[in-house]
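REQUEST FORM: STRUCTURE PREDICTION
Request ID: SP-0412
Submitted by: Lab K.M.
Chain count: 1
Length (residues): 268
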Amino acid sequence: MRVSTAFNLLLQIPKASVADVVIGDRDVEVVLRSRNRLLRCPCGKQVRAVYDRRERRWRHLDLVGRRLWLIYPIRRLDCPDCGVRTEDVPWARPGARHTRDFEDTVLWLTQRTDRTTVATLMRCAWETVTAIIGRGVAELLDERRLQTLYRIGVDEICYRHPHRYLTIVGDHDTGTVVDIQPGRSEQSLANFYGRINAFVALAKRLEVYFEEVIAAIELGISNALIEGINAKIRLINARGYGHHSAQTLASMIYLCLGGLQVKLPTRT
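STATUS: Completed
RESULT:
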């Protein structure tokens, strides 16, 4: 079996095949060839022309104690809409110099231990771990988490003295953190509420109905009673096929909804 065939089976790099392998004392370099004949800009538009090619290296998961590198002549595309853009590769996140497998392993380990231990285990710099965390969170954090919020909790935490705070917003239903804002001021919460359409709509309604909301909180009453009465009035009006005057309709409303006690003469 050829070495390139063996590495194709071992690595299974998406949308690429192994063209060559160079095995050294400390490193293994795997040269890739893209299987994608169609060129596509990161914006999604199909592109015909290649502007140029530049060789790039990505750190992959170690292989039998050796650092493994993927090497590929990445193409820069001449997009009519975006200009000259570098193509995205499926085995790495945009702008990364490590493969997705390497970064996902770092993320998994960082959820469970400190960054210094992760950097030692993965044989990379502490700053590299920090950059991978930022890149991974930016991709994995789903904005849809804000669309199902029902009950939230807000608290502040001092992460560095003196007076360095973060405002933390948690979801009571899922037990997860849904937003983090620097500081502990009103602006910190305003930044959170201003991304969520439901809170924006709520704020606008509060501006209009502020006094009514306060009355409902203090007195324990709301417009529910009147809304129910109005629904019954519409039924009364429809049952009478409309009324020719307001007085006639008012009499019917008093009769049906005014609490008037009418006794049926045939009943004792």
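NOTES: The CA atoms of residues 146 and 196 lie 7 Å apart.
Reviewed by: T.R.
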